[in-house]
Design a protein that fits this description.
It is a single chain. The chain has 7 domains: 2-125, Immunoglobulins (Immunoglobulin-like, Sandwich); 133-227, Sandwich (Immunoglobulin-like); 233-304, Immunoglobulin-like, CATH 2.60.40; 314-392, Immunoglobulin-like, CATH 2.60.40; 398-464; 478-558, Immunoglobulins (Immunoglobulin-like); 562-647, Sandwich (Immunoglobulin-like). The strands form 14 sheets. Strands 42, 43, 44, 45, 46, 47, 48 and 49 form an 8-stranded mixed beta sheet that branches. Strands 51, 54, 55, 57, 58 and 59 form a 6-stranded mixed beta sheet that branches. It has a 5-stranded mixed beta sheet with strand order 2-9-8-5-6, with no helix packed on it. By secondary structure, it is mainly beta. It has 2 helices and 59 strands. The chain is elongated and about 125 Å long.
Length: 653
């Protein structure tokens, strides 16, 4: 009999030793979130590779990344643990204190074999009753010497009002800002109190509030800008000036004496003038800063405009077989016209809009140069034209410049012209269209046929002739859209369109929506479809022509989550686990399981894409519920109760 007992004890010790040695790591499962100084439970499971070492009987030691954590004492697993045991711990506070939460870890290590260990983490949050910030409500505009009131709010780490705050606060102010004495909040304040401040100087001041005591780093601040309504200023000028002239003036006045004046010019970093009145200034925007006593300043602005001018435009043939006729093509705004000629002599027309010039012998090599100066009839401002070069020649090499539309449309009626020369004849031809009027004159009207148009003209004037040629491209506006978007039901999506052609554009969409007067080469449209919809462009037109759109945009409407099958309550034996499952429909759903009764979210236990959750081994009846959620919305399940019955028995050897 004793021999049999010895053999049984030896076998039991051998099995126990084998079970202890079988564990290779620990699973340490902490809740996703914890609150400072509030105990929470976590589990440690001995693992043999990917499986549970249910025979583990070793001793576990605990450490944490939080030096102030309250951890379980060393614990030796028993056969009844079946490789899994639940523990309790407390984290004192997040650190650094300016953060709302901080991630902390707990590590479980086998006391005899340090290679067997595991680590779990949780986010430790400040509790909602601890003040972490003070908010000073913006008082708006404040005036020098006028007391104003504003509230100070005590806020927690989530920027929510702490209605039970009864601490003491201290105020500081700069630039002569008078602040109240230290104040201790009362329960009746409900976390906020109205204080009175007096700004004694103008300009910027800084107001700060800090908590008195150990948490003196808990603070808040507000920058104030104090205005001085008693100090005013006006700015005016001596009127508009001609371009590039400095003949105007600046004048300033103020409601107070003994002030200083400084003028600056917008856009000129290094330009300023001191004093109320200035002379010899040009066009621009001028800012005035008036500095009074007690930090008071005020500003004003005046704009010296530029007299409107128009450039004189002159025309002349590029080549000449004799005297040259030059014209001022826009004469009405000008007075005091004067023609200037190099390598030639004015024969007639000086002081008028038409002049005849005789080239000199030097013009044969250097060309005849003609330009014009004048003054604006409305303001007297001086203007000049650009210079034209005329080459005296009898050869038929000159070019006739054709003026017409930059682009054309199918079956469009267009006008083309060259400079009118007295006594000249004009012979036009059109490829890609047909002349409908004006053949033989310097201006024709032609009808296009739906392709690029090539215009040609030969101008003959006595012994001289010249030709011109111009290609007018066929214009076909286009619109391209190619995008995909996903929105929640009732949400908005923006569709972008790339446009080519000549603004303004008009877009007609496939659903009948019309967008008019689009002046850029990109356009957007905001849509709110009730179901997945594809949008395309039915037609596009620009300032001249019509075209069709290309591509499409599909806006997918995401279905909100919906629970179709509630998690079912069930029973398990003591130490057993239950697998709960929820049925749900929707797009991109995730699930977060909670321990407790819905909608209590204080004990999250699992989160992910799986609709199933397996509980840890349970020793008492426990409730669970799940929230199905997506980027669109969330829906809560009913509460499932896992009832724990009798204790599971260990197998006997």
């Amino acid at each position: 009999m004793m021999g049999a007992v010895k053999r049984f004890l030896f076998l039991a010790l051998a099995l126990t030793s084998s079970a202890v040695q079988a564990a290779t790591s620990f699973d340490v499962v902490l809740p996703a979130m914890a609150t400072r100084d509030v105990p929470f439970t976590f589990t440690v499971t001995a693992r043999d590779g990917s499986g549970v070492d249910a025979a583990y009987l070793g001793t576990v030691h605990f450490t944490s990344s939080d030096p102030g954590a309250t951890l379980p004492a060393n614990y030796t697993f028993t056969p009844g643990d079946a490789g899994t045991h639940q523990f309790s711990a407390t984290m004192p506070h997040p650190d650094p204190p300016f953060q709302q939460s901080v991630t902390r870890t707990i590590t479980a290590t086998d006391a005899s074999n340090g290679s067997i260990h595991g680590t779990g983490s949780t986010a430790v949050w400040w509790d909602s009753d601890t003040v972490r910030h003070f908010h000073i409500v913006d008082p708006g505009t404040v005036h020098k010497g006028a007391a104003f009131q504003t509230e100070v709010w005590a806020l927690n780490a989530s920027f929510e009002l702490v209605t039970g705050f009864t601490g003491t606060v201290h105020f500081n102010g700069t630039n002569g800002l008078a602040v109240p004495a230290n104040y201790t909040f009362t329960p009746g304040d409900q976390g906020k109190h109205l204080f009175t401040f007096t700004p004694n100087n103008g300009g910027d001041a800084f107001l700060s509030v800090t908590q008195v005591g150990a948490d003196s780093w808990v603070a808040g601040s507000r920058e104030l800008s104090t205005v001085c309504p008693q100090l005013t200023a006006t700015a005016r000028n001596g009127g508009p000036v001609c371009p590039d002239e400095h003949t105007s003036s600046l004048h300033a006045t103020s409601s107070q004496s003994g002030v200083t004046y400084r003028w600056t010019r917008v856009g000129s970093v290094a330009w300023w003038l001191d004093g109320p009145d200035q002379t010899n200034v040009g066009a621009g925007t001028y800012n005035l800063v008036v500095q009074g006593s007690g930090g008071c300043t005020t500003t004003a602005q005046t704009i010296i405009s530029t007299q409107p001018t128009v450039d004189p435009i002159i025309s002349a043939p590029a080549t000449s077989c004799g005297n040259v006729h030059a014209q001022l093509t826009n004469p009405s705004p000008f007075a005091n016209i004067e023609w200037l000629v190099v390598n030639g002599t004015i024969v007639s027309g000086q002081g008028t809009a038409d002049v005849e010039v005789s080239p000199s012998s030097e013009a044969a090599s250097g060309g005849l140069w003609i330009r014009l100066t004048a003054s604006m009839a409305s303001s007297g401002c001086h203007v000049e034209s650009s210079s034209l070069r005329v080459d005296p020649s009898t050869a038929n090499t000159a070019a006739a410049e054709i003026s017409t539309a930059a682009t054309t449309c199918p079956a469009a009626s267009e006008v083309a012209s060259v400079m009118n020369e007295p006594g000249a004849t004009y012979n036009w031809s059109v490829a890609g269209g047909a002349i409908v009027a004006g053949q033989g004159t310097n201006m024709i009207r032609y009808l296009t046929s739906g392709a690029d148009v090539t215009l040609s003209v030969v101008v003959t004037n006595g012994p001289c002739s010249k030709s011109g040629r111009k290609v007018v491209p066929y214009d076909s506006p286009s619109a391209f859209v190619d995008s995909q978007a996903s929105v929640c039901a009732g949400g908005d999506a923006t569709i972008s369109v790339a446009l080519t052609g000549n603004p303004p554009f008009r877009i007609v969409w496939s659903d009948g929506t019309v967008q008019d007067d689009i002046v850029t080469t990109t356009a957007t449209r905001t849509v709110s479809p009730q179901r997945t919809t594809t949008y395309s462009i039915a037609s596009i037109s620009d300032a001249r022509c019509s075209g069709t759109g290309q591509g499409s945009a599909t806006v997918s409407v995401q279905a909100a989550p919906r629970i179709t099958v509630q998690p079912a309550s069930m029973s398990v034996v003591g130490g057993g686990s239950a697998t709960l499952e929820v049925g749900a429909s929707g797009d991109d759903i995730r699930f977060t399981w909670y321990r407790g009764v819905a909608p209590d979210r204080s004990q999250p236990v699992a989160s992910g894409t799986s609709s199933r959750f397996t509980t840890p081994p349970l020793t008492s009846t426990t409730s669970y519920w799940v929230e199905a959620w997506s980027s669109c919305s969330a829906v809560q399940s009913a509460t499932a109760v896992v009832v724990v019955g009798g204790r599971q028995r260990s197998a006997r050897h």
